[in-house]
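Contributing new records

If you add data, match the layout below exactly. Sequence lines come first and carry their own label; structure lines follow with theirs. Keep one chain per record. Anything else will be rejected by the validation script.
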Amino acid sequence: MQLTILGGGGFRVPLVYGALLGDRAEGRVTEVVLHDLDAGRLDAVARVLAEQADGVPGAPVVTATTDLDEALRGADFVFSAIRVGGLEGRAADERVALAEDVLGQETVGAGGIAYGLRTVPVAVDIARRVARLAPDAWVINFTNPAGLVTEAMSRHLGHRVIGICDSPVGLGRRVARVLGGDPDEAFIDYVGLNHLGWLRGLHIAGRDELPRLLADDALLGSFEEGRLFGTDWLRSLGAVPNEYLHYYYFNREAVRAYQAAEQTRGAFLRDQQARFYAEMARPGAPALKTWDDTRAEREATYMAENREAAGVGERAEEDLESGGYEKVALALMRAIARNERATLILNVRNGTTLAALDADAVIEVPCSVDANGAHPLAVSPLPGHATGLVCSVKAVEREVLAAAESGSRATAVKAFALHPLVDSVAVARRLVAGYREAHPGLAYLRG
């Protein structure tokens, strides 16, 4: 099978390739095609992959190209992990928003809207090309904002595009470990949108153990989300929120922490990765070791501003393991290609799963996966506070899609102004002006 990775010069591509190296079954990926607009980054990542494959029998063959159509032809699966505007664009998203005293995070609030407005037109073009050049391929989307981008692509690819995120899986694994269960055997009852969901149950051997967690202060405060949100708030919610909900529940504190930080997250990653790619341009640089050292620093500093705002210090070692988006992607590909049924938390069309949303709305929910794709499992309704937030953010996403399609500046202003974390229409207008000035790619917003 051929796997094409869009954004193939991206820093996290070796995670995907490393997961593929451990797959020895029939129907596995035998060829990986890397696509990126930056030939230098492609070369750097290809060197890391070559060192990973050294001595591994039957390692997937790797080729690289800057020609998108060439990369798509013959693909069985397309993994989309692009970053329109690069990390410099992310840093600008943060900077423009913080100047207006609102959140500029990559996927949440003003920053997420700006990133979506830049990314959706490119993602739609990719979806159209896939439909034309590789109509039988499955697209696995990890491009952020993952739910929004998946929904944009689904308008052209239907159910053959599926969004993934490692955040819900990482949360479920942390909770399962705290409760003494096997994370690989537990069922995670989790519902919402991408980066806007709640763990509402954790079933071990058919029994929901979440009530036991919520009743025990020591257990509840012993993992990342317990320290981040506080035990009293989690008990009030009766659920464990995705870590990204810290931006909503503690917005003022998060904004102040971002403003006080020496660097925003985007600026830190921009500079860190610039050093990595510069080092990789040096002949003889140890590719895999350089990458691995950089990755360790990246993981340890994840959401540092939020932990600072919550007063919980550095990330605990046991919380450093994410859900492993590369593992989720491989499990998804395996289930589809081999018809090996699996249950995974994915971003898919709603259908009738959440009554508050229409059928085409992309949600993040446990799904049963087989050769015919991902099928959302039936879930109980969200509580009123969660339903309100989900509906509000989904309405904003729809305005982003409408603005990207029409090029309407007024619709873009509406998207910003309606977001729960943007508190003024005047601020929304200044944000649109600031982002158009910072990003030439947003010049299409007119009127």
